[in-house]
Amino acid sequence: MTRLSNSTLPDLPAQILRPTYDRAALRPGILHIGLGNFHRAHQSWYLHRLMQQGLAQDWAIIGAGVRPYDSAMRDRLAAQDWLTTLIELDPAGRSAEVVGSMIGYVPIEEGHAPLIAAMADPAIRIVSLTVTEGGYYLNPDKGLDVTHPDIRHDAENPARPRTAFGAMVAALSLRRAAGLPAFTAQSCDNLQGNGAILHQTVVGLARLSDPELADWIEANGAFPNSMVDCIVPATGPAELELVRELGVQDDAPVTHENFRQWVIEDAFCAGRPDWNLVGATFSDRVHDYERMKIRVLNAGHQVIGNVADLLGIVTIAETMADPDIAALFRRVEEAEILPHIHAVPEYTPAAYLDLIKRRFANPAIRDTTRRVAFDGSSRHPGFVLPSVRDGLAAGTPVTGLALVEALWARYCTGTREDGSVIEPNDPDWSILQDRARQAAADPRLWLVPALYGELADTAPFADAFDGWLRLIHKEGARAALTRYLAM
After folding, report:
1. CA–CA separation, 402 and 332 (whole Å)
2. Residues 353 and 253 in one domain
3. Are 295 and 270 part of one and the same domain?
4. Which intervals hold domain Mannitol dehydrogenase C-terminal (predicted)?
């Protein structure tokens, strides 16, 4: 067993790829906030592959976090010189590669002084983020929630912020005062128009405390939209054992599927790596790619994740092997989601759905239904409900999507159909659970405007939801699937 570090890279098993570049000569260019598994399997990997070609040596990544629990990840990565073992899981076999594009991690402190100083460094030309879909402080109308306590705090205490966005504003203020250029702010989260949303959050927050700074950011900064895609399970005991089987002691390994996609709007204010040389796509049609991926893949996860966990199915691959759930997925996608998707150069909507079905069915990826079902209060409004609205506007069916929402409501009661407890699986779990239990008697209580907006009172959708939830509570989820598939 070889403990992962710079000094032990030559000792790793021969089949494991490793950096061929001199990591000691790398210079920072990107600061990334949110060093979870997805970033290390995606953006970090693209940059690493450029470095393997002798390119982008001045674009190395400095990691960062804004929550106390991020310190644990910082400690694990520091102990292995910021290296990560990526394990690609494919039915045909697995392979491993050590990624070395990250060279540091900012200390995590209350008030974020080290983070602000790091982003104010002129060497940093891109600040990127993966802070989850629900992390952008959006109100029900998708604007900045200026009433949120964190946003109010940062507006009133701009030099000692709580949030990543407040720290970005503080750093941009320092850069402006020093006569330095702004950095590009790049969201890597699953949000339609993620760059526009990041722009709204950063500029909107700046405007609350310093309107002139907000104007400067508007004029000098950049917020490119992007679409990111790779299925990356959480790391648990099985993944830690898997890396040990390869002969490596890595306390923060990452497993991932054998598919990646990154489509980026080429709108950077301070330069960028040539990610297109290693498979990324620069395009002015990011929104079409985003729409396809979010509606088909991310919404597809919500179509199957809640009902599968409700029925005690543990992984997404096992879920796709269930005939009823697989049929639900196929029919909802084909009848209620694909009609509202535009083709992109690589895929027609139907071809993309076939790709997603194969990826979801990959038995080598132990992606759990619980992970997929997490944070439904952000994911259902963001991923599923846009297709409901499009269907109502176009006169296409929404019955299956109403069933998906009813299954989520049943899931949030907190018990599976076998009586076992569903542990809290949403930042707003207690609120959702209370509402879900009340909705067992009156389904319309679930359809609150904060989540559903005008759909709460839109008859074709609301009536179908009401009927489905009553049926689920009376006869069970399988009965509802059977009824829908027989229509």
Report:
1. 10
2. no
3. no
4. 286-464
As a whole number of angstroms, the distance between CA 399 and CA 461 comes to 7
Residue 109 exposure: Cα atoms within 13 Å on the Cβ side: 11
- Residue 228: the pLDDT is 96
Print the domain residue range for 220.
2-284
Place of tokens 């991020």: 70
The first and second tokens of residue 173, run together, are 């203020």
Q: Which residue has the tokens 């993309």?
A: 352
Q: What is the residue type of 297? A: L
Cβ–Cβ < 8 Å for 406, 374: no
Q: What beta strand segments (E) does 278-394 contain?
A: 281-282
Q: Are 345 and 295 in contact (CB under 8 A)?
A: no
Total tally of structural domains belonging to the chain: 2
Looking at residue 93, its pLDDT comes to 85
CA 198, CA 90: separation in Å to the nearest integer?
34
Provide the 3-class DSSP secondary structure of residue 218. Answer: helix
Do 386 and 323 lie in one domain? The reply is: yes
Helices (H), 65-125: 70-78, 113-120
pLDDT in tens, 438-450: 999 999 999 999 9
* Nearest Cα residue to 161 out of 129, 126, 205, 118: 205
Closest C-alpha among 190, 370, 355 to residue 262: 190
pTM, to two decimals:
0.90
CATH number of the CATH domain containing 311: 1.10.1040.10
Q: Which residues of 26-65 are buried (b: 16+ CB within 10 A; e: fewer)?
A: bebbbbbbbbbbbbbbbbbbbbbbbbbeebbeebbbbbbb
Q: What's the CATH number where 96 sits? A: 3.40.50.720
Span 17-38, pLDDT tens digits: 999 999 999 999 999 999 999 9
Query: In which element (H, E) is residue 264 found?
Result: strand 261-264
Residue 112 shares a structural domain with residue 14? yes
Q: How far apart are CA 321 and CA 357, in angstroms?
A: 11
